[in-house]
């Protein structure tokens, strides 16, 4: 076929892709100041790198709907952009946590700007811990030399452990048992990358990059209540505190800092669906793994997803019990000193997909089908946001409450960024809200909202209990007076 004939076809294909998604609108943008502190004052002491242990940032790494206007957000392993010790890749004993945020949409009646206003408000900070002892770095690495510079390393145990008599999870990379594989649930190191809320609203599920792990935590206390055993082919056998050594020392399992980046939950709350950020060391040709987990039994299945233009996957969210949206992106944009190129949301269907649990290598022939739902970069560009101001790490994704817009039911898709705790270069934590209708999803696809029960936010539990106690006293008094 001649070049003259090919060009019109390419233009037609590009136009068809745009037209199919042109009705998905940007409804609102909200900003959470990432240069302040979160609500955990007792972690405000200085970390090893000199930064405050309650620095607010990274909250868009994972995002989950908790009913109403309430969302749960997970910062990842903490502020490690400040160089202080390459023996642990500059990671610190920052305590893993999740943030409870109110993201209420209100109509914009000003006559200019987007159709809705969004004002994120942080309402609670919950620290993550284990009821059983965890393995921390003892400082046994002692003095080490990287290049021509010598470094010393102290214990990785958070000071707050002794004060609270609690075993907190932290982001420091040496908090692991070197005699066991990376999937050891007793390791204290945790890099939360995704979060989902249980249907009863009382617990959260968190996936991580270090293990990879999927843990269930009590939403009120932050205490771990369950560990899911993931397939052994996801883990590495020789963990290290330094990523370069860890990558070089393992020929199978997750690649360092590219573990279980995304996590979905089925609308009925019975199945978790995790997705790896990048191919496992034993896989090839841009194929990453999707792992389904039956919450009750722990049974797992694995499926292949092939990357298109992005260098990795950051999130997965459920449309229903078998169809999902996948956030595929590159690392370019605000925070990387470049301009954003690939930030795309694809839709997939696991119906009939082949289980790849027992095979490795090039999984392309087994990969699930996919089609583009939303090009985030072009949509933001169309709303006056230049590519150099689009965050490099678009990582969180969650559906919120439906809206009626001009008589059409519209699903609200919230998308957030991870600013790596460096607001100065990567900008503040942003929340973008897109309106998606059933027509936008296309033939054969449908959306079912997760049935999440509303529960008091963590900061409200104490007041609730106090109120119940007061009611109890009043009832007893009435009985006595009668």
UniProtKB/TrEMBL annotation:
Signal peptide bounds: 1-22
Instruction: Look up keyword RNA-binding and say if it applies.
Output: no
Keywords, A to Z? Signal
Is Signal found in the keyword set? yes
Its transmembrane ranges are: none
What sections of the sequence does the record tag as coiled-coil? Answer: none
- Tell me the SUPFAM superfamilies matching this sequence: 3-carboxy-cis,cis-mucoante lactonizing enzyme (SSF75011)
Domain Phytase-like per the UniProt entry, residue ranges: 56-421
Residue span(s) of domain Ice-binding protein C-terminal? 454-478
What Pfam families has UniProt attached to this entry?
PEP-CTERM (PF07589), Phytase-like (PF13449)
NCBIfam families named among the record's database cross-references: PEP_CTERM, PEP_CTERM_FxDxF
Q: What is this protein called?
A: PEP-CTERM sorting domain-containing protein
| Species of origin | Undibacterium parvum
